[in-house]
Design a protein that fits this description.
InterPro entries: SRCR (IPR001190), SRCR-like_dom_sf (IPR036772)
GO molecular function, one term: serine-type endopeptidase activity
CATH architecture of the largest domain: Roll
Pfam family, one: SRCR
Order of helices and strands: HEEEHEEEEEEEHEEEEEEHHEE
Bound molecules: 2-acetamido-2-deoxy-beta-D-glucopyranose
Structural class: alpha+beta
Radius of gyration: 22 Å
Helix content: 10-25%
Protein name: CD5 molecule like
CATH topology of the largest domain: Mac-2 Binding Protein
Mean pLDDT: 85
Disulfide bonds: 96-106, 201-211, 308-318
């Protein structure tokens, strides 16, 4: 079992990338249905100016992303980290009638000389409650169920793989996919309609609805073939022992317990992700001595061998050893100092 677990773990520890199939995405928000609007042109992601931006425009974005109804037109600057100065602003004066399939089908103008990033548009959509993990111990583990015509049903394991599990975990705001398997016993099997089979995701899709699949309700599957997925729970972080919430020893919350992070392999990329995730600006360079000055922690050492590329929005998207597996002591606890307070 341990070997299988490590194998699965090794396969799915890449950074999460959003939006290869859709040319719009929402960044910096708590889930894929809220954030600053970005659109893709020729492989580059740029922002949208909020001149004339209204709820009809947001409605189109929400639909395009497979999210629910449009709830608001927040300013893009609410979502951290802010757009980089050099990032392009691709659209302005967007005027949708609300029925278009994609933002690019609306009327809009490319002429962006009088827009700055403090006018970036944002979008707030309802998270579509059409996927869930049922019958498990929490919302991030269970039998995959999808809602169609107002009715929840299961998904057949045929054609399903870890990339599809990754999409579901991300869509639900959980961490990485750590396991997918058939529902193996009667207690974990579903009932009623088996809605989907042959769902094939590359892993880059923003939601399960972007993955090709067989027709709704047309399959020869039985509930013994229902799909079961386990994702990591999202975890919280904090910096403790410093003067402000933006400096100190790093702690992460797992299973309701705060624990420290070992500094093996820790560096500037990892610092950067922590400062970004906490909305604390840039990281400041720290000597080993300064890093240790926040004192050793006590209790659990949750994470070790953390590796980020620096582009991740949160530490969950970085690689690390399995929770609680380490070869460290508290003298090696990670500390971080960021530029803003
Ligand atoms: C899952 O299947 C899809 C499509 O069949 C494929 O693109 C993807 O690479 C597969 N992922 C894994 C982890 O095997
Ligand atoms: C279900 O099985 C029947 C009989 O074997 C076959 O004709 C049919 O094509 C199958 N349907 C699907 C959706 O695979």
């Amino acid at each position: 079992m341990d070997l299988l677990f490590s194998l699965i773990f090794a396969i799915c520890t890449g950074p999460v990338l959003l939006g290869s199939s859709s040319r719009v995405r929402l960044v910096g928000g708590p889930h894929h249905c809220e954030g600053r609007v970005e659109v893709e042109q020729e492989g580059q992601w740029g922002t949208v100016c909020d001149d004339g931006w209204d709820i009809k425009d947001v409605a189109v974005v929400c639909r395009e992303l497979g999210c629910g109804v449009a709830k608001g037109t927040p300013s893009g600057v609410l979502y951290k980290p802010l757009a980089e100065k050099e990032q392009n602003i691709f659209m302005q004066e967007v005027a949708c009638n609300g029925m278009e399939d994609t933002l690019f089908h609306c009327e809009w103008s490319e002429d962006v000389f009088n827009c700055l990033h403090n006018e970036d548009a944002g979008a707030l959509c309802e998270i579509s409650e059409n996927v869930r993990l049922a019958g498990g111990p929490g919302r991030c583990t269970g039998r995959v169920e999808v809602k169609h015509q107002g009715q929840w049903g299961t998904v057949c394991n045929a054609g399903w793989n870890l990339s599809a599990a990754k999409v579901v975990c991300q869509q639900l705001g959980c961490g990485r996919a750590i396991l997918t398997q058939r529902c193996c016993n009667e207690a974990t099997q579903g009932q009623g309609t088996i809605w989907l089979t042959q769902v094939s995701c590359s892993g880059q899709e923003p939601s399960l609805w972007d993955c090709p699949s067989g027709h709704w309700g047309k399959n020869n599957c039985t509930h013994e073939e229902d799909t079961w997925v386990e994702c990591e729970d999202p975890f919280d972080l904090r910096l403790v022992g410093g003067d402000t919430r933006c400096s100190g020893r790093l702690e992460v919350l797992h299973k309701g317990v705060w624990g420290s992070v070992c500094d093996d392999g820790w560096g500037e990329n990892e610092d950067q992700v922590v400062c970004k995730q906490l909305g604390c600006g840039e990281f400041l360079f720290l000597s080993v001595k300064a890093r240790r000055s926040f004192g050793p922690g006590v209790g659990r050492i949750w994470l070790d061998d953390v590796h980020c590329s620096g582009k991740e929005q949160s530490l969950e998207q970085c690689q690390h050893r399995f929770w609680g597996y380490h070869n460290c002591n508290h003298k090696e606890d990670v500390a971080v100092i960021c530029s803003e307070h």
